[in-house]
UniProtKB/TrEMBL annotation:
It comes from Crotalaria pallida. The keyword Calcium applies. One of its GO terms (molecular function) is calcium ion binding. It comes from the Eukaryota. Residues 30-65 form the EF-hand domain. InterPro entries: EF-hand-dom_pair, EF_Hand_1_Ca_BS, EF_hand_dom. Keywords: Calcium. This is EF-hand domain-containing protein.
């Protein structure tokens, strides 16, 4: 990422490292006004409290800022939305006051700022310059030929289908915004494909030589489209190597504080015992302090977590005492750490930004009254 970013002209790269969030929450007057405007925006019935229904847009924006899929599309991540809502309501209330809203929002924003400081988000303006450099560069033919070799059954598919899949395998490093984004496909790639149609090979299978030739023609036209309609992409690269867990576990005060916070709102039976069913919920609360993403955010990480649960036999619904629950949760963290130390997980994320970024996410974008 650094090599790619360094090629860009000054002004085409913006790094979001959480400093804007810290600036917001660090100024009590400004933050109070922000909360006031956000609260009034959500309080549709103007009763001075937020109902569960009125909180939904804020919860959805927080989920999006965490990189989660939309609520209702993934059972693995839906419980995270539920837990965010519980943070506001403490799992009991049906209405949230402005004071409670401010307190929880502050905690969430501080967590987001810490995450962005650790893993900054780079805002890239993709105007075709990097794509043109890639197409005319020495590695172009070898990389595109490699992509062609990875495409399944090319001899049974049309050249058009193969070209679309090949663009999907390129990244921002080659100057291509994610074509999986519907806006990018409909406004950048599809118009070029339609203009390219009608050639002798377009709707028929093609050999590698023909593909390389035709793909270059399409790529150069995409360069022209990007010059006309630049695309803004939020790009981040994170490597999870267990170091965050190691730091947490090495600080007894911090791990005790984190575990106590994770268990604070978990239901208990009359003997004060907690069901092991809530271990995943508790792990989600601990994750930000351990340098991890919530369960459901990354498939590779979910596999590591599942393996850790198996290693400590944590998936049975047995009721255990609080200290035993903390011990098992600590063992799970240790197992995840060892797995990541042996096989770090690197994740690259690219999201198309469809409107200017005043702050780091939709959650933080000012309402019209703040803009004024």
């Amino acid at each position: 990422m650094e090599g790619n970013s360094s090629k860009r002209k000054s002004g085409e790269v913006v790094v979001l490292d959480g400093s804007n969030i810290m600036e917001l929450v660090g100024n009590e007057q400004v933050f109070s006004k922000f909360v006031e405007n956000k609260f009034n925006e959500l309080d549709r019935d103007r009763d001075g409290e937020l109902s569960l229904k009125e909180l939904e847009p804020a919860v959805a924006d927080i989920g999006a800022a965490l990189g989660l899929p939309a609520q209702g599309t993934s059972p693995d991540s839906d419980h995270i939305y539920y837990e965010v809502l519980n943070e506001f309501t403490h799992g009991k209330q049906e209405k949230v006051s402005k004071t409670e809203f401010k307190e929880v929002l502050l905690d969430i924003l501080l967590g987001m700022a810490a995450g962005m400081k650790r893993d900054p988000i780079v805002i890239l303006r993709m105007d075709g310059e990097d794509l043109l450099e890639f197409v005319n560069g020495p590695s172009y033919e070898a990389e595109i030929a490699s992509i062609f070799s990875m495409i399944e059954s090319p001899n049974n598919r049309s050249l058009c289908e193969i070209v679309i899949e090949a663009f999907g395998r390129l990244t921002v490093d080659q100057g291509i915004p994610p074509t999986s984004d519907s806006w990018v496909f409909n406004n950048i790639l599809e118009p070029v494909l339609l203009s390219q149609g009608g050639g002798p090979y377009w709707d028929k299978p093609a050999c590698e030589e023909t593909f390389l030739e035709e793909f270059k023609k399409v790529a150069l036209r995409v360069v022209d489209r990007l010059k006309e309609q630049p695309v803004i992409v939020a790009h981040s690269e994170n490597t999870f190597d267990g170091s965050g867990i190691k730091r947490l576990l090495s600080n007894k005060f911090e791990i005790d504080k984190t575990l106590n916070s994770a268990l604070e709102n978990l239901p208990r039976d009359r003997n004060g015992k907690i069901s092991k069913d809530y271990l995943r919920v508790a792990l989600d609360v601990v994750s930000p302090s351990a340098g991890l993403l919530p369960v459901g955010a990354i498939q590779e990480m979910d596999k590591v977590i599942s393996e850790a649960f198996k290693m400590v036999n944590a998936d049975d619904p047995k009721m255990v005492k609080e200290e035993e629950f903390k011990k098992i949760l600590t063992e799970i963290l240790g197992s995840i750490m060892l797995q990541l130390e042996g096989n770090p997980i690197s994740v690259s994320s690219n999201s198309v930004v469809h409107e200017p970024l005043g702050l780091s996410s939709k959650l933080l974008q000012p309402s019209s009254s703040e803009t004024a």
